[in-house]
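User: I'm new to structure prediction. If I give you an amino acid sequence, what do you actually give back? Let's try with this one:
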Amino acid sequence: MSQPPSTLQEPRRLSGQLQNQGPDPDTYRLLATLEVDARALSARLDALLHQLQNELSDSSDSTQESIVVFHDVVEATCASVDAMVERTGVLVDRCEKLDRSLNLIHPLSHQIKGIKQALVALEAKVQVS
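Assistant: Good question. You get back a string of structure tokens that encode the predicted 3D arrangement of the chain. For your 129 residues, that looks like this:
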């Protein structure tokens, strides 16, 4: 069983036929058309590969920019959280100080109530006399 000729052997076979048979205008036209089509296909493939390369480069640049933006956002968020934690600590300290100050008011309030009761009792005695 014979094997079909490889694609590399096909042009050689055609070339050999041309030499054996002499110049055939149809064969030359076919070869010229094939060459033009091959060049056009090669040019389109080259353009597609350049376009793909540009798109991949743009995608890579966009990805790198996204990573930088993400990094900046994470850093800014961490800084904001740190600032908020610090401010919350200051607020808690102030609230505790205010609570201690308000705790001093309770005994004063009892003293004022006692003074008020004494004044009411004194007023009652003054009115009775």
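You can read the tokens as a compact description of the fold. Here is one thing that stands out. The helical segments are 9-21, 25-128.
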